[in-house]
Amino acid sequence: MERYFGTYQTFRTASRQEAAALLGSDNLVGDEYTIDCVLEEGEHKAWMVNRFGARVGYFDPGFSRELSLKKAQDMTLVAILSFVAFSEQPEPGEYWGQAAVLGYTPREKAVFEPFVQGIANLMGKGIRPQVDFEGRAVDQIIESRGQWLPGNREPMPEKRKGMAILKRKRSFTDGLVEQGRKGNKGCYFLSWALMLGLVALIVFGLKTCGVF
Fold first, then answer.
1. N or C end: fewer C-beta atoms under 10 angstroms in the chain?
2. Which residues does 118 contact at the CB level (< 8 Å), separation at least 6?
3. In sequence order, which ranges of the chain are alpha helices (DSSP H)?
């Protein structure tokens, strides 16, 4: 049985509602997602499901079928959000992104869970570590009990005309939101104070310019 699987894959959103959720604090760069493999109208579709149980994006049919087969082989699959982008083409424009998709055997759970967390921490900082490897690299993960992390980096996709990267690392406010999720109420209220302060600053600027 395959011990480990890793790749970067593009996902797309089904509607602007999912796109709006991707831009919010419920989906931070470096967040981990479960993968829900389904058949829709006879076509494989693998959905990324966030920690709140919401579907936020799906992979293309070919890769979705591959993930379905890996799930059938009892592999544990997880996706990690790398970035969110918008492209003007095809019209009227679409929101999309990339995620690192990792798989491992359940019997190696104690080893690969800390490895996945290490990859997620790097991605939250805007670093895209290589995840597509086998052989000796997989041995290093197991021998280090998940503490080994790859030094090589995965380049961002080529930027094209009409394409904008909207999220590629966690901001200071994202960090406060995450601390709030973990029970740090001070960080939670500070994050809201910063967001409300930003809104007030924008309104003040508009009034100064005579818009209001």
1. N
2. 146, 147, 149
3. 16-23, 61-72, 109-124, 136-143, 172-181, 185-208
What is the maximum alpha-carbon separation in the chain? 67
Is the Cα torsion angle 4, 7, 178, 50 positive or negative in sign?
negative
Span 136-165, average pLDDT = 93
Q: How much is the CA Rg of the chain, to the nearest whole Å?
A: 19
3-state DSSP helix/strand/coil % of the chain, to nearest 5: 40, 30, 35
Q: Output the six-digit token pair for 2.
A: 């395959």
Quote the pLDDT of residue 192: 42
pLDDT at 204: 53
pLDDT in tens, 79-99: 999 999 999 988 888 899 999
Bridge partners of 5, per DSSP, are: 103
In angstroms, what CA-CA distances link 135 with 1, 57, 139? 13, 31, 6
35: part of which helix (H) or strand (E)? strand 32-40
Does the pTM surpass 0.85? The reply is no
Whether pLDDT at 72 is above 70: yes
Angle between helices 109-124 and 136-143 (to 10 degrees): 100
